[in-house]
């Protein structure tokens, strides 16, 4: 009997290790796969049958013996895993293997289509790879949504004795965990995407900058890199192509602002993580002053599918200029929190109510913050806005990293606005005045408004200064939650 119990940190936090131990005690060595992303059902135990894998959840250690005996007659039986509606209705391109394979089994990865993209890339020129990524319409999934192909072309065309590929895996936004799920559940996919990027731009070295609070992800990546080094997929000659690519995982500095690409480069170089002035762009002068291709985990992880299946296959998903899929993470006051990979164009209404099942408190939804702690608070009246980069800009929001945090009608939006300013004050690198001073003044102004002073105009002026004068997105985006709270929930500021 083949039994699967997730080994990612999200599932471990919910008791998966105890479940796996209970399975082992019954003489079965469980496969520690990644999570399927159905976190309200974790720990999810799966059993392989002739009809496919069947699922049970949420499972505790005391349920294991009866599940193994009763199987489909057990009260926790969920049916065939692939038929669970939450999972069945997704478009899993990037997450197609996660939850299915053993994350550190190279044999598993290859048997499920792994490295087919790299095989094709090795037969192409750098320009051809860049063109394929350009035509796919892939944009940065870290939040800035800059076209990935244009960034790679800039690095490829730069003349330099050395170039780098850097993955920004410092996933620090509240309510986001898709990067962690990839690193813990399908690390070879991320590495394959980075290797293809290195071939495209002519880089010989790469770094994965992993959030310091992700010890499981870091450990998994170190093991995955070691396996690929020994197997010839990395090193002096990638698959005997004569093209080198050396990769290293680095622990991040534990600072939110190091998620900004230039602060991240400073940190990798061993310096304090402070934002650099731009220009020069990192694509021209990045890590150690060399041309550097920087993307986040999901951006790199989307590349193997594009190279393997062609640009058009990826472009067929999505809408407008937002092509492909986005791994959306539901969190906060929500009944069915988890990861949903869908093509761009799905709405918050569909995500929060059809997938999420509404609030865990059973109270009305008041707002959803989209795009992390610096994302706007979206009211239910705008929940029919399609998830599309340009559509969200029109309503004063941002998709960011795809994280959605739900609030019910008991939430105090003035308190949430103050939290945004406080978060910025704590996490600011301090280099520019609008961010460093503006966030502190913002807290003070909101505190005075709480005491009854009419200071909305001053708060809006302060936000405008931060928007237009900050050196990076840390200060430049802090006004998004503040202004959206003011605009959509004015009653909370009275």
| Overall pLDDT confidence | 96
How far the N terminus sits from the C terminus, by CA atoms, comes to 62 Å
What strand order characterises the main sheet?
A: 12-11-15-13-14
Number of domains: 4
List the helices and strands and how they pair.
Layout: E1 3-4, H1 9-13, H2 16-24, E2 45-49, E3 52-56, H3 64-70, E4 77-80, H4 85-88, H5 106-111, H6 116-121, H7 126-136, H8 148-157, E5 164-169, H9 178-185, H10 187-201, E6 205-210, H11 215-231, E7 246-251, H12 261-268, E8 292-296, H13 297-309, H14 311-315, E9 318-319, E10 322-323, E11 325-332, E12 338-343, H15 348-355, E13 365-370, E14 377-378, H16 389-394, E15 403-408, H17 413-427, H18 433-450, H19 456-469, H20 473-477, H21 479-488
Parallel strand pairs: 5-6, 5-8, 6-7, 11-15
Antiparallel strand pairs: 1-2, 2-3, 3-4, 9-10, 11-12, 13-14, 13-15
Helix pairs in contact: 7-8, 7-10, 9-10, 9-11, 10-13, 17-18, 17-21, 18-19, 19-21
Explain the overall architecture.
The protein is of the alpha/beta class and 494 residues long. It has 4 domains: 86 residues, Glutaredoxin (3-Layer(aba) Sandwich), CATH 3.40.30.10; 210 residues, NADH-ubiquinone oxidoreductase 51kDa subunit (Rossmann fold, 3-Layer(aba) Sandwich); 89 residues, Ubiquitin-like (UB roll) (Roll); 81 residues, de novo design (two linked rop proteins) (Up-down Bundle). 40% of the residues lie in helices and 14% in strands. The protein is built from 21 helices and 15 strands. It has a 5-stranded mixed β-sheet. Helix 7 packs across helix 10 and helix 10 packs across helix 13. The model has no long low-confidence stretch (mean pLDDT 96).
């Amino acid at each position: 009997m083949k039994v699967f119990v997730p080994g990612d940190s999200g599932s471990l936090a919910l008791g998966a290790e105890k479940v796996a131990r209970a399975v082992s005690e019954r003489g079965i060595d469980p496969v520690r796969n990644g999570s399927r992303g159905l976190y309200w059902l974790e720990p999810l135990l799966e059993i392989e049958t002739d009809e496919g894998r069947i699922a049970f959840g949420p499972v505790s250690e005391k349920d294991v013996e009866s599940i193994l005996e009763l199987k489909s007659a057990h009260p926790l039986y969920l049916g065939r895993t692939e038929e669970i509606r939450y999972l069945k209705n997704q478009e899993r391109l990037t997450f197609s293997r996660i939850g299915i394979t053993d994350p550190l089994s190279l044999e598993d990865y290859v048997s499920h289509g792994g490295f087919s993209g790299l095989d094709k890339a090795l037969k192409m020129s750098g320009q051809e790879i860049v063109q394929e990524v350009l035509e796919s319409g892939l944009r940065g999934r870290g939040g800035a949504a800059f076209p990935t192909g244009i960034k790679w072309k800039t690095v490829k065309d730069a003349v330099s004795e050395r170039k780098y590929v850097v993955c920004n895996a410092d996933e620090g936004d509240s309510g986001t965990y898709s990067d962690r799920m990839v690193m813990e559940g399908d690390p070879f996919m991320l590495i394959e995407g980075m290797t293809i990027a290195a071939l495209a731009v002519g880089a010989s070295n790469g770094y994965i900058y992993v959030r310091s609070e992700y010890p499981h992800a870091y450990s998994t990546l170190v093991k995955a890199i070691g396996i690929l080094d020994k197997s010839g997929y990395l090193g002096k000659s990638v698959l005997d192509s004569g093209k080198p690519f050396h990769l290293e995982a680095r622990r991040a500095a534990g600072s939110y602002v190091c998620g900004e690409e230039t602060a991240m480069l400073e940190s990798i170089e061993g310096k304090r993580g402070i934002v650099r002035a731009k220009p020069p762009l990192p694509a021209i002068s990045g890590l150690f002053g060399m041309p550097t291709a920087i993307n986040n985990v999901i951006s790199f992880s989307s590349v193997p599918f594009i190279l393997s299946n062609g640009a058009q296959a990826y472009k067929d998903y999505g809408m407008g200029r937002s092509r492909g899929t986005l791994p959306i993470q539901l969190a906060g006051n929500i009944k069915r929190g988890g990861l949903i990979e869908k093509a761009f164009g799905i709405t918050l209404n569909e995500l929060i109510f059809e997938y999420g099942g509404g609030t865990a408190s059973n109270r009305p939804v008041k707002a959803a913050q989209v795009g992390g702690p610096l994302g706007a608070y979206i009211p239910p009246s705008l929940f029919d806005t399609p998830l599309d980069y340009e559509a969200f800009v029109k309503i004063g929001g941002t998709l960011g990293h795809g994280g959605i945090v739900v609030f019910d009608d008991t939430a105090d939006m003035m308190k949430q606005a103050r939290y945004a300013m406080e978060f910025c004050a704590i996490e600011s690198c301090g280099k520019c005045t609008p961010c460093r001073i503006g966030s502190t003044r913002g807290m003070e102004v909101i505190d005075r408004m709480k005491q009854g002073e009419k200071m909305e105009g001053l708060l809006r002026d302060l936000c405008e200064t931060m928007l237009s004068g900050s050196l990076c997105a840390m200060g430049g985006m802090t006004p998004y939650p503040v202004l959206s709270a003011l605009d959509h929930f004015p009653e909370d500021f009275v």
